[in-house]
Amino acid sequence: MKGLERIEELSWAYWKSQVIFAGVELGVFDLLDTAARSSIEAARELNTDPRATEMLLNAMVSLELLKKTGRRFSNTAPVSEYLVSNKPLYQGARIHHMHNLWDRWARLQEAVRTGKSVVEDKITDPKRLADFMASMQNSGTMKARLIAKKFDLKPFRKLLDVGGGPGAYSIEFARTNPGLTATVFDLTDNLKIARRRIKEAGLQGRVLTRVGNCLEVGLGREAYDIIFVSNLVHIYAPDTNVGILRKCHKALVAGGKVVIHEFVLDATGTRPLFPALFSLNMLLGTCEGASYSKEEMKGWLIEAGFRRPKTIRLNRDSGLVTAEK
Questions:
Q1: Is 2-90's fold the same as 103-144+155-324's?
Q2: How many angstroms from the chain centroid is the CA of residue 219?
Q3: How far is CA 66 from the centre of its chain?
Q4: How far apart are alpha carbons 132 and 119 in whole angstroms?
Q5: How far, in Å, CA of 226 to CA of 22, rounded?
Q6: How many angstroms separate the CA atoms of 42 and 48, rounded?
Q7: Among candidates 279, 281, 289, 276, which has minimal Cα distance to 316?
Q8: Residues forming beta bridges with residue 73, ordered by sequence position
């Protein structure tokens, strides 16, 4: 029966996702962080139906998102830390982004039959773009702190952040390494958000921006001593990624390093779980993207002219693949 229970649970696992989506969208977690409330009180303040609200809050308790004492509900510690909008480690934008992916995942069978994306190859809806960029900022800040602990940036002075989006990594790297100047390289719309974030961080003089598309233009010649390529190669096919890495090679000084930050599959392509599923997400949302193994990324680096590729495990799902010129 355990095997059947596992299969059945997978079939309704999306119910759980919808509960957390509703919690973030309705403002449940913000409300319950100020004080415990009954479902009647919560419904009154959220402007929701009392009976439906009690059902939702009870489901959240079952998912260990909330605690229930008597008839009153409050946040669990992880929810208070990560899903309350005024907290420094808020991850709600990432939840919004995952919710936005819902419609494309409903078309997975179509993508598998055709081998093609079910959406355009870029986000055009302003709200979805804002959610995506805020999601990158949420997760990027936390990942950048982890990377700073695992990879020593102190020897470097000039960093290029290719496809750096909202600038989360460059901002955190510059903040923790006073001798480092970073340049965020990305498309115009993305850099509008990055410039705002840089100004908020008070790092205008040390985190710069540069408009460009790494598929269309070069990155410079011997201009940087470290290049950071984060969550970019999963958008493209292997040949395209080798081309991007060749441009990185040209842009580095002798002895400079390139750092690829990615969700990393094992050699079988089946583990860890998130990168394996994320590969399907790339099938749905890009023209040629996928998750890749460390062996594949090391091969690209060598083909692009780099030497001594190494890997650093960050957590269960992601890691760094580094090499030097």
A1: no
A2: 24
A3: 25
A4: 15
A5: 42
A6: 8
A7: 276
A8: 37, 68
- Domain covering 103-144+155-324, topology: Rossmann fold (3.40.50)
Measured in residues, the chain has a length of 325
Per-residue confidence of the chain (325 residues) as pLDDT tens digits?
Answer: 689 999 999 999 999 999 999 999 999 999 999 999 999 999 999 999 999 999 999 999 999 999 999 999 999 999 999 999 999 899 999 999 999 999 999 999 999 999 999 986 555 677 777 788 788 888 888 899 999 999 999 999 999 999 999 999 999 999 999 999 999 999 998 899 899 999 999 999 999 999 999 999 999 999 999 999 999 999 999 999 999 999 999 999 999 999 999 999 999 999 999 999 999 999 999 999 999 999 999 999 999 999 999 999 999 999 999 999 9
The DSSP code for 299 is H
Establish whether the linkage from the previous residue to 272 is cis, with ω within 30° of 0.
yes
Residue 120 identity: E
Which fold is adopted by the domain 2-90? Arc Repressor Mutant, subunit A (1.10.10)
DSSP 96-108: HHHHHTHHHHTTH
258 vs 252: CA distance, rounded Å: 8
Cα–Cα separations (whole angstroms), residue 245 to 163, 237, 297:
13, 13, 10
- b/e 222-247 (16+ beta carbons within 10 angstroms → b): eebbbbbbbbbbbbbebebbbbbbbb
Using DSSP's 3-state secondary structure scheme, residue 142 falls into helix
Whether the Cβ atoms of residue 141 and residue 172 lie closer than 8 Å to each other = yes
Can you read off the two tokens belonging to residue 151?
């990879």
Q: What's this model's pTM, rounded to 2 decimal places? A: 0.93
Residue ranges of domains in the chain: 2-90, 103-144+155-324
Q: How many CB atoms lie within 10 A of CB 11?
A: 9
Query: In this structure, are residues 164 and 136 in contact, taking their beta carbons and an 8 Å threshold?
Result: no
Q: Taking Cα atoms as reference points, which of 60, 24, 32 lies closest to residue 43? A: 32
